[in-house]
Amino acid sequence: MTQHTIDIDARIDVSPISALQWRVVAICFLLAVVDGFDAQAIAFVAPLLKTDFSISAEAMGGLFSAALVGLMTGAFGFSPLADKIGRKPVIMIACALMGAFAIATAYAGSITELYVYRFLTGLGLGGVMPNINTLTSEYAPKRVRALLMTLMFAGFPFGAVLGGLVSAQLIAGFGWPSVFLLGGIAPLVLLALTAIALPESVRYLAARPNRQAYVAKILGRIDTTFRADGEHRFTLGQSKEQGGGISGLFKGGRAVPTALIWLIYFANLLMMYTLMSWLPSVMREAGLPLDRAIATTVLFNLGGVIGGLAIAWWIDRRGPHGVLLVSFALAALAIAFIGQAAGALASIFICVFAAGVGVIGTQLGMNAVVANFYPTAMRATGIGWALAVGRVGSIVGPILVGIVLGLEWSLPAVFLFTAMPALICFLALIVFKAVTIKNGARS
Q1: Cα-flanking dihedrals φ and ψ of residue 3, to 5°?
Q2: Residues 6+ apart with CB under 8 A from 322
Q3: Up-side HSE of residue 316: CA atoms within 13 Å toward CB?
Q4: For 391-416, how does the pLDDT look when each residue is reduced to its tens digit (9 = 90+)?
C-alpha cells in the first residue's frame, strides 16, 4: 500500500475552520473563564477578609500573591510536562487541583490556611492557562490564529467580569465563602467536559508514530477533503525543529527574543495583576461603596475583552508590533490618569476601562505573538515559561503596592508607579522587532 506524506500544518492552514476546531476554542474559552474567575476571586472578597482576619495592607499584598506564586510554579512545572505527555492530561490535572483547593479556601479558618489554599489553587491555575493557549494555537489556522487565540483567552477577563457581577450578589446573600465554592465547583464540572469532549492537540499527536490512526481521524474532521484510505505519514511544517526542553528556547536565534518576551510578560503581568488585585480595595478606601469598587475591576476586565478582540483583528491583518506599541502607550497613560481622576466616578470608570484595553488587551495580543514565534515542538514550553516568568511580575506587583500603600503614598503616586512597567514593555517590544527582523526569526 502506498504511503502518503501529509503536512498537518499545511492542511490546517488552508482548510475552513471546522466544528471540531470551534469546539476546542469553546471548551478552552470556558476553561479560561473559570481560570479568570478563580484568579480574581480573592480581590472581590478582600475588603471582607481584611476585616474578618484583621489583615494589614502589607499582609493582604502577600495573600494576593500566594495564588500567583502557585500560578508561577504551576506554569514552570506543567508546561514542559505538557510537551511530554500531552496538553489534555495536564489540563485535567490542573482543573482537579484548582477545583479542590478553591473549595478548601471557602472553609479556611486562619490566615495561614488562606495562604496555603490559595497557593495550591494557583498551581491549578498555572497549569490551565499555558496549555489552553497552546492547544488553541495548534488547532488554529495561521491566517486567524491571533483572533481565535484571543477569542479563547478573552474568557479570562470575561471570567473576572462575571465574577464581579456575581460576587457582589453571592457575598450579600451567602457571605464570602460562597465565591470560592462557586470557583471550585465550576472547574470540576469542566474537568468532566474536558475528559469527554476535548481532543488532544493534533499537531502534538502527529509527532508520535504510535498515534497516526488517531491523527488521521482528527484530520478527517478538520479537512473534509482528506480520506484515510491508505497508509499515511504525518509531518509538521516545523518538524525539523526539536524541542530540546528549556534550552531550545535559546537556540536558533531565539535567545534575545526569548529574553525580551520574558521581560514584556514580567512587566505587563505585574501591571495586570496589581490592578486586578488592588482596584476594589483601593477604590473602597477612596470612598466608593463595595459594589462600585468591584465595578472598577469589572470595567478593567471588560476593557480587556473588547480591546483584546480589536487588537487580535488588527494583528491578523497588519501584524502585531505597531498596534501593540500603541496599546502599551495607552496602558501607561490610562493607569497614570486613574489616580488623577480619583474624585470623579465617571472619569475613574473611563480610565479603568482604557487601562484594561491597554494591559489585558495587549496581553491577549502578546500570547498570539508568542505562540506564532515558537515551533510546535517547544510551543507549550515557550508559552508556559513566558507566562511563568510573567507570574514573577504578578507576584511582585501586588506586594510592592501593598508596601507603598502601607507607606501612605498618595493615590496619584501609586498609580503613576503602577504605570511605569508599560514603558518598559514599549521599549522591549521595539528591540524585539528589530532583533527578529535581523535574525529572520518567525515572529
Answers
A1: -95, 130
A2: none
A3: 18
A4: 788 888 888 888 888 888 888 888 89
CA distance 49 to 281: 11
Q: Measured between alpha carbons, how far is 128 from 241 in angstroms, rounded to an integer?
A: 25
Query: Model pTM?
Result: 0.74
Torsion of CA 427, 431, 433, 436, to 10 degrees: -160
CB 426 within 8 A of CB 332: yes
Q: In the beta sheet, which residues pair with residue 7?
A: 235
Burial of 109 (0-12, 13-18, 19+ CB in 10 A): exposed
Nearest to 336 by CA among 317, 355, 319, 321: 355
Residue type, 442: R
Q: Which residue has the cell 457571605?
A: 175
Q: Quote the CA–CA distance of 103 and 179 in Å, as a whole number.
A: 9
Q: What are phi and psi of 231, to 5 degrees?
A: -85, 135
CA distance 302 to 69: 25
SS3 3: strand
d(CA 305, CA 279): 18
Virtual CA dihedral for 428, 432, 433, 438, nearest 10 degrees?
Answer: 140
CB atoms within 10 A of CB 336: 19
* Cα 381 from Cα 81, distance rounded (Å): 8
pLDDT value, residue 441: 46
Q: What residue type is assigned to position 225 of the chain?
A: T
Find, among 88, 124, 83, the residue nearest to 104 by Cα.
124
**Of 267, 259, 274, 275, nearest in space to 393 by CA:** 267
Please tell me whether residue 110 adopts helix, strand or coil conformation: coil
Helix (H) or strand (E) holding 232: strand 231-235
Q: Are 7 and 236 in contact (CB under 8 A)?
A: yes
Q: How confident is the model over 350-367, as pLDDT tens digits?
A: 989 999 999 988 887 787
